[in-house]
Amino acid sequence: MIVAPPPTVADSWPAGIVVAVALFGLAIGSFLNVVIARLPAGRSLVRPRSTCPGCSALLKWYDNIPVLSFLALRGRCRTCGMRISWRYPIVEMVTAVVLVLAYVALGPTADFAVAVVLLPALIAITGIDLQHQLIPDAITLPGILVGLLLNLATGRISWVESVIGIVLGGGLFFLIILVSRGGMGGGDLKLGAMLGAFLGWKALLFGLFVAIVLGGVIGAAFLATGVRGRKDPIPFGPFLAAGGAMALVWGERAFSWWVRGFVG
Ligand SMILES: [Zn+2]
């Protein structure tokens, strides 16, 4: 008797597609490094080509291959030997891993199409906020429009939910800024509105909940271990980005659990 083998992970997520998504993620991550280095300084993302900040040598194509070049060069410029930041391979690997996880969780769906746009934007915002304590308008303001248009185009959530998300995300941070007087900034407000546009108001609420819990736990751990003092600001953007990413996958489901919990 022949028994068909049970379906495996490899059947539902063909290895070829996963490898393609990972390579795509590495390439996008490489571009995000350019965004993180240049956007806060107001420099063009396209020109000039990448050079070493130490000796201004133009990088050869084979010194610009995500992760591999960093390893081959042992983290140093080929020409002058200056150290290359670990940020470069980390951003490339994080982007690849996050996009692969999104594909495994969402499959070839409209949700994944949205993830391919939203998750890289959140990684760039995280990198820039960690380095410069600012969330760039150049990402969040177009992001509000792109999030709304993507939902209109794919129909994954209605445009009404997206618009309510924008108003709710921006409005909640407006209230927090009024009450906390300096705890949060306008960058958080615009990121809140952008997340609302992409996620819709239901998943947005879950994302904000995750961000506040993560921020509270990690902030308390920083204080307890003395990594950060009571006076040192901890940027909230990375927590919002993490919450937003999780909300893209679990937000709608978590929201309906909450509603069922409240209603009965
Ligand atoms: Zn150099």
Describe the structure.
With 264 residues, the protein is an all-alpha fold. It has 2 domains: 14-106, no CATH class; 109-264. The protein is built from 9 helices and no strands. The protein is globular and about 65 Å long. 34% of the residues are buried. The model has no long low-confidence stretch (mean pLDDT 91). Bound molecules: zinc ion. Residues 52, 54-55, 57, 77, 79-80, 82 line the site of zinc ion (ZN).
Number of helices: 9
Total E-strand runs: 0
- The proportion of residues in beta strands is under 5%
Q: What quaternary form is this?
A: single chain
The best one-word shape is: globular
Bound molecules: zinc ion
* Helical/strand content category: mainly alpha
Percentage of residues in helical conformation: 55-70%
Give the helices and strands as they follow along the chain: HHHHHHHHH
| Terminal Cα span | 49 Å
Main beta-sheet strand count, sense and barrel state: none
How many domain modules?
2
Low-confidence stretches: none
Average pLDDT, to the nearest integer?
91
Radius of gyration: 20 Å
Salient structural properties:
264 residues, mainly alpha, 9 helices, globular, binds zinc ion
SSE topology sketch:
Elements: H1 9-12, H2 15-38, H3 68-72, H4 87-106, H5 110-132, H6 137-154, H7 159-180, H8 186-225, H9 237-263
Helix pairs in contact: 2-4, 2-5, 4-5, 5-6, 5-9, 6-7, 6-8, 7-8, 8-9
The structure holds zinc ion.
